[in-house]
């Protein structure tokens, strides 16, 4: 019985761990939110959002590393437990980038290259 409880506790701890940023799926954001903007404004928005994604992805990566470390040492995903998980923010930022890119393509704007690891 004790062995089953330990295995259950480990399984729950592992499922509560923060995901790596590249494993997070973007939120579906309609490009209509950006279609009234000019190509120049869209390009500026794209740069800002890519920078925001890079920053929140670093925080998420740090949370995932902290969770792995915490589970290994004490059996608890520390970062996720104490609010370090930024999965929602990463998903929204990725969704915004996809929507901006789609709006740029629909307007015939020059779409800047994106790092493939953030998609």
Present the secondary structure layout:
Layout: H1 2-15, H2 39-74, H3 78-81, H4 87-107
Helix pairs in contact: 2-4
The sequence of SSEs as H and E is: HHHH
Q: What does the radius of gyration come to?
A: 18 Å
Shape: elongated
How confident is the prediction overall: mean pLDDT?
77
DSSP helical segment count: 4
The helicity comes to 55-70%
Count of distinct strands: 0
**Which stretches are low in confidence, meaning pLDDT under 50 for 5 or more residues running?**
5-15
The chain-level structural class is: mainly alpha
Intertermini distance = 44 Å
| % residues in beta strands | under 5%
Q: What does the main sheet amount to?
A: none
Count of individual domains = 1
Structural summary, described in words:
The chain contains four helices and no strands. By secondary structure, it is mostly helical. Helix 2 packs antiparallel against helix 4. The longest helix has 36 residues. The radius of gyration is 18 Å and the shape is elongated. It starts with a helix and ends in a 12-residue tail after the last helix. About 9% of the residues have low confidence.
Summarize the structure.
The chain is an all-alpha fold.
Which features would summarize this protein structure in a list?
single chain; 119 residues; mainly alpha; 4 helices
């Amino acid at each position: 019985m004790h062995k089953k409880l330990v295995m259950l506790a480990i399984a729950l701890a592992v499922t509560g761990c923060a995901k790596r940023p590249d494993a997070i799926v973007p939120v579906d954001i309609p490009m209509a939110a950006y279609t009234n903007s000019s190509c120049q404004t869209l390009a500026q928005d794209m740069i800002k959002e890519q920078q925001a994604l890079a920053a929140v992805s670093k925080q998420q990566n740090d949370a995932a590393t902290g969770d792995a470390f915490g589970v290994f040492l004490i059996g608890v995903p520390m970062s996720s437990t104490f609010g370090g998980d930024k999965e929602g923010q990463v998903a929204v930022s990725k969704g915004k980038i996809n929507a901006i890119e789609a709006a740029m393509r629909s307007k015939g704007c020059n779409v800047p290259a994106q790092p493939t690891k953030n998609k």
